[in-house]
Amino acid sequence: MGFRTPVIMLGRYPVITVPDPAPAALPMIDPANLLAIVLMAAVTYLTRIGGYILLRNRSLGPRAMAVLEAAPGCVLISVIAPAFVSDRPSDLIALALTVIAATRLPLLATVVIGVGSAALLRHLFA
Q1: By the 8 A CB rule, do 58 and 51 touch?
Q2: pTM higher than 0.70, yes or no?
Q3: Is residue 97 within 8 Å of residue 114, measured between CB atoms?
């Protein structure tokens, strides 16, 4: 697969080069898949701006603020936790390092340590 230019030979000497025909057009995306992508993007956008729209004229108490501040960490844990239910020692060591970092460092540093340690340990143990 690739683009090559055929050469017409006259004895040992090339005479004419003929370009390949145009490559076939890429297949169109299925309308159902396109609709699903557009709807998922719309729902994602609406959930992001929904909180601002619903709470724009309200002041939240300290308890509600604490819940909203804890939400990103909870979502992060719910996304990555299933990956650590494994029998790979590299994942379990990375999980332990991430938990230790989470008790002492801010969220961004914890994420960087978690991703970095998982990548490094998977590379070393592979």
Answers
A1: no
A2: no
A3: yes
